[in-house]
Amino acid sequence: MLAFLLIVYILAINFYAFLYMRSIKDSDEEEQKQHDGKLSLVALLGGGLTIFTCMFIFKNRLNNLFFMIAVPLLSALHIYLWIIAFRSGFSLFRWR
Fold this sequence. Notes:
Elements lengths: L1 H25 L2 H4 L3 H22 L7 H23 L9
């Protein structure tokens, strides 16, 4: 049950990250600078891989060094933690 909830969460946050990056692309240059905090939060919550991919698809935020370094590092960390969680059968989260 916990694995199913984690999969749904991963899919939902990445879908939201895609929609958010698409809306940033459609906005003006002035409005794009206001989205940095929310974009960082979405990447921190687990949507970093989608954000990094969308930066190249939509050709957006490629000149921002913070996003080009921090988002791939967060993505690698999240993927590593998800692999550990699924391999251990979520025994790290159970109280014994």
